[in-house]
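A.,

Following up on our hallway conversation. Structure tokens first:
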């Protein structure tokens, strides 16, 4: 799409992002301005936005973590430090996808795909091992009385059901790894649960440090 631009988020974008998030998630508490300011301070390269004709139409936020510290069940609040990203760790090998959303009026235009591609390119540029995220399951609620979230996710994997988020993530070459319970309790559509997913960077070079590690001050 010639008129779509994926770029790093600027402080001047915050007002528009807050307005857009309220429209995308009317039932979920939105970010606070100071949270977005802190995200940009902690890891500016990890905050991406989609712009079309000068209008903000989506965003993707991420941080770098030591995955071993979070490989057990965790919540969104814990791993993102309540959205401040103070858990960002330049020593880590994992790009953690904290949030992606697209303007409801612009869905179907592959904006989500290009935001995911922006993340993949960032992962490769930084020489990180993988991208991990916990995706919402917005199609789960109608099935929640008949099956667990794990059973629902398996049916999506098998093609018996379609979920607006997980089905998209599978098409984006992410692998499903399991369910995170109580990941985002206020997400009623997902019954508070999320699908743990991973994308492995095919270009990762374990013999050289990541770009973030290389930029750290020398201990000598």
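Then the amino acids I'd put at each of the 220 positions:
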């Amino acid at each position: 799409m010639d008129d779509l631009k994926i770029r790093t988020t600027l402080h001047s974008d915050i007002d528009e992002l807050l307005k857009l998030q309220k429209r995308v998630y009317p039932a979920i508490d939105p970010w606070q301005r100071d949270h977005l300011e802190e995200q940009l301070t902690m890891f500016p390269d990890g905050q991406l936005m989609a712009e079309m004709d000068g209008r903000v139409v989506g965003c993707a936020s991420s941080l770098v973590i030591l995955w071993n510290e979070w490989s057990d069940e965790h919540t969104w609040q814990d791993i993102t430090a309540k959205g401040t990203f103070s858990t960002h760790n330049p020593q880590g090998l994992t790009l953690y996808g904290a949030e992606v959303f697209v303007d409801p009026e612009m869905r179907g235009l592959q904006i989500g795909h290009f935001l995911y591609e922006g993340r993949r390119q960032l992962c490769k540029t930084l020489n990180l091992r993988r991208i991990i995220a916990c995706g919402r399951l917005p199609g789960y609620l109608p099935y929640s009385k008949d099956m667990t979230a794990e059973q629902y996710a398996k049916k999506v994997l098998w093609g018996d059901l379609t979920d607006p988020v997980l089905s998209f993530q599978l098409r984006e070459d992410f692998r499903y790894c399991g369910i995170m319970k109580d990941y985002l309790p206020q997400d009623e559509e997902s019954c508070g649960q999320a699908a743990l997913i991973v994308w492995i960077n095919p270009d990762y070079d374990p013999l050289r440090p990541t770009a973030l590690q290389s930029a750290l001050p020398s201990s000598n």
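The CA atoms of residues 57 and 103 lie 5 Å apart. Curious whether your intuition agrees with the design.

B.
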